[in-house]
Predict the structure.
Amino acid sequence: MAIERTLSIIKPDAVAKNVIGKIYTRFEEAGLKIVAAQMKQLTREEAEGFYAAHKERGFFKDLVDFMVSGPVMIQALEGENAVLKNRELMGATDPKKADKGTIRADFADSIDANAVHGSDAVEAAAVEIAYFFGK
Ligand code: IDP
């Protein structure tokens, strides 16, 4: 299986709940290494640029408002099959639909405040990692 990298963001709701360590433990226990990390208060421009693919969606403004509502913890994760593995750890976008034991089922409150972001493909991961960490 290929060694991949993926971008993960612990969103403002989960940072405020003080569960960064618990989420990091899940990454580590699944064999994903944290190879870069930064805690950051996103600007509106950064949040809008990051989610540019969603800019025509009705929830875009709410999504940006939420992403700038407090600091986020951004990390690049590396490991076998990292993109899919992280998506499995995260669970479905809507925490009500997320499988038991996933990060979103355990730590998220709603589809807006859903605890984590994770790249959805290897190509997207490369773009997203470069967005925050450069080449
Ligand atoms: P993902 O984060 O599971 O990859 P995406 O479809 O890429 O989900 O959506 C990005 C983010 O936009 C979601 O994590 C969620 O916070 C927000 N979002 C997606 N769909 C909705 C919605 O229908 N209402 C409100 N927020 C949404």
About this structure: The chain has a mean pLDDT of 98. DSSP finds seven helices and four strands in the chain. The pocket of inosine-5'-diphosphate is lined by residues 54, 59, 63, 93, 111-112, 114, 117, 120 (CB under 6 Å).
